[in-house]
Write a structure and sequence with these properties.
123 residues; mainly alpha; de novo design (two linked rop proteins); 4 helices; 76% helix; 0% strand; elongated
């Protein structure tokens, strides 16, 4: 993070998480109508939880609280991935669509885990 972080909106992980949300919503729109409110709602909630927890944790202004919220964001990312895998196994999502989402999840998860490690090392 070479530039000064004044707001959670300056965090690259928050920006990537925000980019993931519309991608996930587009995926959910491909689910059968019968699943848009069941599995679809769970998928959307998990996706939205990631940037929301990053923002909330950063706003708390204490490293331990930020770490707690980053951990929740990472857990929500794992939940999102699991729910998408379930959707694929049930035949609701193609392997290709799942792969695109997985790439975005990895591109967010790696730096998120890295930030958590760096902050933990400072405690």
């Amino acid at each position: 993070m070479g530039t000064e972080v004044r707001s959670y909106q300056d965090l690259r992980i928050w920006q990537r998480a925000m980019e993931l949300v519309p991608q996930v919503y587009r995926l959910v729109s491909k689910l059968p109508t019968s699943e848009k409110y069941g599995l679809g709602d769970q998928i959307r909630r998990a996706a939205v939880s990631v940037p929301a927890n990053i923002a909330e944790g950063h706003a708390r202004r204490h490293t331990k609280e930020f770490l707690q919220h980053l951990s929740i964001a990472r857990a929500s990312l794992a939940e999102l991935h699991t729910l998408l895998l379930i959707a694929e196994r049930l035949g609701f999502l193609s392997r290709e669509l799942l792969s695109q989402a997985e790439e975005a999840i990895v591109n967010l998860g790696m730096p998120l885990s890295g930030l958590i490690r760096r902050l933990e090392a400072k405690l």
